[in-house]
Design brief:
This protein is α/β, with parallel strands linked by helices. It is built from 22 helices and 16 strands. Strand 7, helix 8 and strand 8 form a beta-alpha-beta unit. The protein is globular and about 60 Å long. The structure holds pyridoxal-5'-phosphate (PLP).
């Protein structure tokens, strides 16, 4: 099993190389050259298995330069202790043949854990295969969920250090406290005076500064990346689409071979792209429904073929989907073009130069054969949170609210009643204020934890201990730096 680049299809590398390097030198993303195919028997065999066993079966098709022992150890390490639900990614029936796939039972209560609990194992394993024996330094600029999930994933992992920068006024109170109270001997967290773009730009320039690289090299260290374009973050996400399908069979809602729909709340297009890989592998899928908030660049693209990032940016109650450049779309377009890296390169250079591109009619037809898309604004999202709680007794977060709203509209418009899985990406308690508004409750306090307690007592759904335990916790990392000082902070955190 080999990997190539979306911008240079003559390249051929192993999964270890792709994961250790994160991105290809010419700027393309690593993709498998042949997507492995599975049989109906393969899928049937997953039904009685645990999540870890399912993960082993699916991952070993892609990580062919990892031994079975390595994959066994890695998946056990990632999914045995950090998740509070014994099924890891449980499927919950919402009503009739509509189900919710809960991906937020990990240590940070957001779906990023599904990949970031496994990535440190894959990354250290890959670095060993590349046999450079250097200590891996992960630098992250975060606007919220990714930073915390990466910290939890890399905490105390031998051979790694992780440093996270966040904008001091650009994350929620809960997200800030989650990061500033982080434990572990190899972690560092620093706020910067500036916005997310400043943090991101600062991290990128440290990453690419030859002098910094040299200093790290002298100390036997090297940078690596934990962001969502790394293949090591995508491949763990393929597993839960198979797992959900196996659970649909187990519950008797479908028989093996019957097609189902997935609805995915989407930002960077990583999660829904994993569903596309599962489908290409042979998972019986009817439609992949891409759900967006007011930042509806993907809705427009899937419906018209034109991708235009030159539009107003909206700050919404589903902030992890506030994105105008969906990086992982590049992988989809590469595959649908018949692995044509020239065509892919042309589209994405048009995106960076002109802020837009339009795909061919032929390509649009291929996209629409698989994908449907829709969007909703904040007031519709909150309404859906309220309706879903009243009508189905299910409490959802705003990202999941967007997905349920878009799915309901799709089902109504198309009359498509195929059995469906709606992907749920965060615990409602990560976003208590917006969820309370959705329920029509006006709680007069600015304190996030009082709102969490109010939501707990109103809904009867217990708040996760991972979040309630932060109430009154004292931060361990209180430094704020100027954006010009980020490099010095990195050196001092690394003791070089
Ligand atoms: C990251 C995130 C998303 C978006 O996922 P993509 O893979 O970027 O499309 C949706 N919901 C939550 C809660 C997230 O953290």
């Amino acid at each position: 099993m080999n990997y190539t680049s979306t911008r240079n299809n003559t390249l051929s590398v192993t999964s270890g190389f792709a994961i250790a390097n994160g991105i290809s030198t010419e700027g393309g993303l690593f993709v498998p050259t042949d997507i492995p195919k599975v049989t109906a028997e393969f899928i049937e065999s997953l039904v009685p298995m645990t999540y870890i066993e399912r993960a082993r079966k699916v991952l070993s098709l892609y990580l062919t330069d990892f031994t079975d022992e390595e994959i066994d150890e890695d998946t056990a390490g990632a999914y045995s202790t950090g998740f509070t639900h014994e099924k890891v990614a449980p499927l919950v029936n919402l009503h009739d043949n509509v189900n919710i796939l809960e991906l937020w039972h990990g240590p940070t209560c957001a779906f990023k854990d599904m990949a970031l609990q496994l990535l440190p194992y894959l990354l250290t394993g890959s670095a060993e295969k590349m046999s450079d024996g250097k200590e891996i330094v992960i630098l992250v600029a975060t606007s919220g969920d990714t930073g915390k999930a990466a910290l939890e994933g890399f905490k105390d992992v031998p051979g790694t250090k992780i440093l996270v920068f966040y904008p001091s006024d650009g994350v929620s109170a809960m997200q800030k406290l989650q990061m500033t109270t982080q434990e572990g001997h190899n972690v560092g967290v620093c706020a910067i005076r500036g916005n997310f773009d400043d943090a991101q730009t600062g991290v990128k320039s440290i990453f690419t500064d030859p002098a910094v690289r040299e200093a790290l090299d002298k100390n036997n260290m090297a940078f690596s990346s934990a962001n969502s374009i790394n293949w090591g973050r995508l491949v763990p996400q393929i597993v839960y689409y198979f797992s959900a399908y196996a659970d649909m069979i187990a519950s008797g809602q479908i028989t093996n071979g019957e097609k189902i729909n997935f609805t995915v709340p989407t930002g960077n297009f990583g999660n829904i792209l994993a569903a596309f890989y599962a489908m290409e592998m042979g998972l019986p899928v009817n439609k992949l429904i891409c759900a967006s908030n007011a930042n509806n660049v993907l809705t427009e693209f899937i419906n018209t073929g034109r991708y235009n990032r030159l539009r107003q940016f909206h700050t919404t109650v589903s902030p992890s989907m506030d994105i105008l450049i969906s990086s992982n779309l590049e992988r989809l377009l590469f595959h649908l073009s018949g692995d044509n890296s020239e065509e892919t390169k042309a589209l994405f250079s048009s995106l960076s130069q002109n802020g837009e591109y339009t795909v061919s009619t032929e390509m649009l037809e291929k996209i629409q054969k698989v994908f449907a898309a829709g969007c909703c604004d904040d007031s519709e999202t909150k309404q859906t949170i309220g309706n879903t709680f009243r009508e189905n007794g299910y409490l959802c977060d705003p990202h999941t609210g967007v997905a349920i709203n878009v799915y309901n509209a799709y089902r109504e418009k198309t009359g498509d009643t195929t059995p469906t899985v709606i992907v749920s990406t965060a615990s409602p308690y990560k976003f208590s204020p917006a969820v309370l508004e959705g329920l029509g409750e006006n709680i007069v306090t600015d304190d996030e934890f009082e709102k969490m307690a109010a939501l707990d007592s109103i809904s009867g759904v217990p708040a996760p201990a991972k979040l309630t335990s932060l109430w009154g916790a004292s931060p361990r990392f209180t430094d704020i730096c100027e954006k010009e000082d980020m490099q010095n902070v990195v050196f001092s955190m690394l003791d070089i």
